[in-house]
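[agent] plan:
  1. take the single chain provided in the ticket
  2. run structure prediction with default settings
  3. attach structure tokens to the ticket
  4. add a short note for the reviewer (M.T.)
[agent] executing step 1
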Amino acid sequence: MKRHIPWHKTEAERAEAAKDTKIFLEPFMGKGKVHMWMDTMDDKLEAMYEARPWRQYVIEAESGKLIAATGLAPFNMEGKIAKVKAACK
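[agent] step 2 finished; step 3 output follows
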């Protein structure tokens, strides 16, 4: 990222970080193909899915079913991207 992002203290700060992350990811995934959902400040979503910089999930919107998940570390990014793309077909 181009700027340091401190621990979010407000939903506005969290939304700004999500917007920046979407802009960062779209060159890899395709413009308009990255969707971001924001947790409230109670962090219930974080507790369920443990967001990390290199961890990605594909969740079926209608059922809430987890389709694919990647690991924590920034290793094998080509493989991680392929896994997410395959899950989105």
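[agent] step 4 note for reviewer: The chain has a mean pLDDT of 84.
[agent] ticket updated
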